[in-house]
Amino acid sequence: MKYVILSVLSFFLLNCKNVETEKLSAETIVNKSIDVSGSAKVISSIIDFDFRDRHYSAHRNLGDFSLMRITIETNNDSVFDVLSNDEFVRYINDNETIFVEDSMKVKYSASVNSVHYFSVLPYGLNDKAVNKTLLDDVSINKQWYHTVKVTFNQDGGGEDFEDVFLYWINVETFELDYLAYSYVEDDGLGLRFREAYNERYINDIRFVDYNNYKPKDASIALSELPNLFETGELKLLSKIELENVTVN
Predict the structure, then answer these.
(1) Which helix (H) or strand (E) holds 109?
(2) Model pTM?
(3) What digits encode the pLDDT tens for the residues 213-239?
């Protein structure tokens, strides 16, 4: 009997060691999420969608990109904001370039990039300026999630390089279902928590919409937001809905 117990104990300890050894890295988890979401196809694609009365178009080709936002003014002029690898340009109607001060170029670039960034997550989480750290798994709405923390290098991280993100990726499906981020405001830090819904696949690429929440207290840790979400203590600010999505 003693030998049987020792044998069972040895088997249990060996399995525990194997589980620990096989623990996935943040890099592996993100790569799996990108794979199941079809995001690898984003790298060479043309994606169009409408968001809040504006049209967006992203042309990507193996690292080269052109991210566009089109706004129809009240006088029916069309204003094109275009962010590429090299520059930001604003022009109106028939390619008449509008002069934009450098300080405003930074703001417009960040605004255009932000919408396109969120539209194709988890694509972009392997950019050179991204730093990924694996945190403890958490349970959200009775599902277990890997927690990946993302920070950015100042070089290549854009105007908002100080932002910090947490991504919660389902341990079974590897789909990105929740995220939270902190960003710098004039009066301190802002916090947001997003819940994905309305999942659909268009040409094998996963798209979602988001419920966009904020906490009452902006001084709490990002890691506490899932708990506040589950207990109904987050305020729903808006819905992030992409309409008329097409992929080529």
Answers:
(1) helix 102-119
(2) 0.87
(3) 999 998 899 999 999 999 999 999 999
